[in-house]
Write a sequence for this structure.
């Protein structure tokens, strides 16, 4: 009987430890970042500054409306980029990928990138893979922030 009670307490301890670990990981992953509170145009300037701090040159924000699918035009190591910025409170879908794909061609850039404070839907990931568009989510931007 004592062995069963000991086994029960050990089992409950493992379950509680697992629940605590899950809660910590979830909280850390969804931790609000300063970029989450920005308006769209402010987020574009934040992303341009982040690119510059990470070795990009000529990271310039395009005009607000009628940008043809690219919010930032940048260059690094001789490679030119068209960047679409999305500061939302939900996952980013295929529309952003389509926009930057068009913007990349319109501006004659080599690479298209979508930068966001969120994550991407599976269809967006599939489309980006097919169209060779880079997806930089909140985890990637957070790592860029730490590297500057």
């Amino acid at each position: 009987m004592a062995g069963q009670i000991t086994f029960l307490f050990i089992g409950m301890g493992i379950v509680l430890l697992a629940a605590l670990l899950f809660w910590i990981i979830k909280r850390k992953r969804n931790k609000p970042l300063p970029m989450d509170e920005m308006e769209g145009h402010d987020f574009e300037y934040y992303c341009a500054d982040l690119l510059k701090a990470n070795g990009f040159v000529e990271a310039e924000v395009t005009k607000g409306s009628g940008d043809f699918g690219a919010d930032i035009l940048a260059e690094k190591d001789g490679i030119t980029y068209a960047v679409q910025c999305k500061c939302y409170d939900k996952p980013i879908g295929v529309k952003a990928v389509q926009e930057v794909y068009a913007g990349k061609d319109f501006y004659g850039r080599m690479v298209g990138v979508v930068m966001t404070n969120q994550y991407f839907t599976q269809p967006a990931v599939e489309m980006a893979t097919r169209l060779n568009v880079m997806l930089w989510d909140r985890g990637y931007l957070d790592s860029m922030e730490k590297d500057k």
